[in-house]
Amino acid sequence: MKIKVFARSKEIADFICELWLKSGQEAIKHRGNFFVALSGGKTPIGIYHELAKSSQTRLWRKTHIFLTDERLVPWDHKDSNYRMIKKTLLSRIAIPEKNVHPVRIRELAALSAQEYEKDLVQTFHLKRRQWPKFDLILLGIGKDGHIASLFSGNSTLAENKLLAASVRHVKRQRDRVTITMPVICHARQVVFLVTGKRKAKIIKEILMDKVRTPALSVIRRNKKVLFALDQESASLLETSF
Ligand code: 6PG
Q1: Could you give the 3-state DSSP secondary structure of residue 177?
Q2: Which terminal CB of the chain, N or C, has fewer other CB atoms within 10 Å?
């Protein structure tokens, strides 16, 4: 696991753009495609804006973009992760439509999850019991330590057969679809993007106090994890990283 602390969010964005380009070129050279899963939330917005400015059209043609999770709302709803990612990134780059994999919104969250699972299986040409190997997964972390829509105490967190699952967000009483923990743990590179004072406590709990959270499970099961923090979110960490 690596931890990088940046002075400003813009520096995180620049770093992610470089990492994206390097990982993308390597993935396309060795495997023909670049598979990425993007998180919703507010933290990545500036990063997606910067990514959209990169003029690597060759890269976009071989890049497949999935979402780490989605709220079961129409794609034009203010809370839709797909809407945010489309506005900040997808609508500004020359990525083929077939390479963008949003969660299809159905009446039943379980149906949306099943269709998302099918899209993963087909796109990665998976056989039974095989896991998709994303080249890069960008994740935020909630103040309660949740990642994607994997919440402590929720049974979906322990899901170890499905690639995508539906989950009810108890507080908001809203259904969501999320990729599961094994998918995150099989990724070639996971980057946690965490900024702001309000995340300092959870970052300390994860990185110093080793409080059992979904993010800590990823650290324990996937060696290729990077925490991209700003000084505010890292402010309670004792040693400088
Ligand atoms: C979502 C996200 C969620 C998010 C965290 C952090 O659908 O809300 O996928 O997991 O990454 O809640 O959100 P912020 O970046 O807004 O703090």
Answers
A1: strand
A2: C
Sheet with strand 2-6: strands edge to edge:
2-6, 225-230, 190-194, 136-139, 34-38, 63-67, 100-101
* Overall residue count recorded for the chain in this entry: 241
Best probe residue, ligand 1, of 12, 38, 39, 144 (max atoms within 8 Å of C-beta): 39
**To 10 degrees, what angle do helices 45-53 and 81-88 make?**
40
Nearest protein Cα to ligand 1, atom 12: 142
Chunked into runs of 10 residues, the chain (241 residues) has average pLDDT values of: 94 95 96 98 96 81 97 96 98 96 96 98 96 98 96 93 92 89 98 98 96 95 96 89 51
**Ligand 1 contact, 220 CB (< 6 A):** no
* DSSP summary character for residue 103: P
* Distance in angstroms (rounded) separating the CA atoms of residues 108 and 127: 26
pTM: 0.96
Distance 102 CA to ligand 1 centre (A): 16
Contact, 185 vs 222, CB < 8 A? Answer: yes
Count of Cβ atoms closer than 10 Å to residue 133 Cβ: 14
Beta-carbon count within 10 A of 72 CB: 23
SS3 state of residue 4? strand
Q: What is the per-residue pLDDT for 172? A: 73
Please tell me the distance between residue 176's alpha carbon and the centre of ligand 1 in angstroms: 12
Q: 209-212: long-range contacts at Cβ-Cβ below 8 A with a sequence spacing of 24 or more?
A: 211/145, 212/152
